[in-house]
Amino acid sequence: xxxxxxxxxxxxxxxxxxxxxxxxxxxxxxxxxxxxxxxxxxxxxxxxxxxxxxxxxxxxxxxxxxxxxxxxxxxxxxxxxxxxxxxxxxxxxxxxxxxxxxxxxxxx
Amino acid sequence: xxxxxxxxxxxxxxxxxxxxxxxxxxxxxxxxxxxxxxxxxxxxxxxxxxxxxxxxxxxxxxxxxxxxxxxxxxxxxxxxxxxxxxxxxxxxxxxxxxxxxxxxxxxx
Lengths: 108, 108
Hints:
Two copies of one chain form a homodimer. The first copy, chain A, is of the alpha+beta class. Chain A has three helices and four strands. In chain A, 35% of the residues lie in helices and 39% in strands. Chain A is globular and about 40 Å long. Chains A and B meet through strand 1, strand 2, strand 3 and strand 4 of A and strand 1, strand 2, strand 3 and strand 4 of B. Strand 4 of chain A pairs antiparallel with strand 4 of chain B.
C-alpha cells in the first residue's frame, strides 16, 4: 500500500505531476512505472513520493526533494529521460508538472 | 471526469492534501466531498483543483490559489471547518497538508 511520505520540516521542494493516462500499452507503462519508482528512491536529495490514480485515468504523483538542483538532476537522468520520452509519445494524453517550494506542513 | 487544472503562469500557491481514507461512513464522506467541491470553486482566489484516489484508500487532492491569504480564508471558512472536523474525527486515518509556492510549470 502506498503511504503518506515522511518529509522533514519545511522548506523543501515538491514536483506535482498530474497526468491523464490513455489506454495504450498498459504493460509497458506499468513496468516502466515500477522501474522509475525503484530508481527515484536512489537519487541524491530524494525525500519521498506519493501517487494516486482514479479509474478514469487522472493521476497525481508528488515527489519531494531537498533542492531544486536535485529535481533538475532527476529530470536529466538518462533512464528517466527515456521514460519521459515514452510518456510524451505513448502513455499520456496530457500532463502538467509543477515545481514548488513547500513552505508549511501539518499532519493528522 | 476530473481534469488537469488550467492554472495561470507561476508564481501561485498550492495545497497538497494527501490522506488515507478509512472505511467509515462512506455516504456521509461522499456527500461532504461533493459539497466542499462545489463550495471551494466559489472562494476568492481559487484557481483550480485536482484529485485522485487509489482503491487502497490513499488520495491526493491539490488545490491552487492566487495567494496565501486565500488559502487561510478557505481553511477558516465555517462550512469547511465543519468538514475538517469530521475528517479528523471520522473519515481519515491520517493526512498531511503541505502549503507550497508553485515556481515553475510545464505541460504536454
